[in-house]
Amino acid sequence: MAGSAARKGPIGQPALLDTELEHLPPELRWREWMGRVEAVIFAASAPATRETLARVVGKTCNIELIIDDIRAELAGRPYELVSVAGGWQHRTKKAFGDVIRTASGQAESLRALSQSEGLVLMCIAYFQPITRSELSSFFGKEVSRDLIGVLRSQDLIASGPRSPQPGAPYTYVTTKAFLSHFGFDTLRDLPDFEALEDAGLLSKDKMLAGDIPFGLAGGGDVDDCDIA
Question: How far apart, in Å, are the Cα atoms of 68 and each of 62, 65, 78?
């Protein structure tokens, strides 16, 4: 692959990166852009956004096509490039999840959400912004501050705007970490609630019974669910 060309900047300033690469033939230019994009995604601690990637490629570069070509090259690898939380990130393929956890000694230490935590998190995901009082009304019993604290400690939810209700209580919303954890690019990727209702696959009664449409909850008997 061709080296990354850069123009010297002022003394004490970083070199200016040549993003257009007009001196390279089209095929080599494209390969260089692919390498830059993958390098930025690989080095990023969070999903790399389009705006971030656009800084290292030319104005005519189609980011989606670059991503498609990188994905094609990774087809036989144990990791892949996924769209999460409004950007792109390298992820180990699910088939190798147990291998990674065993190698890192986390096979027994990983904690899935409990049934009650999963139910509350799903309710927040679908009806955000929502207050703790509204959550309690939905479930017919108090949703404890401790349970909310568990979800906050895992960075799955955060405080949202204050509600117009008396006392202006804080609402709760999901976070980018929530999207990343469950593999969603945006909240639009959540299973469509109305469609699930129309198909008879989901309702308030089913939610209260612990019927969760995506992997929020761990094992456990629904009868043991306690949100207080």
Answer: 10, 5, 17
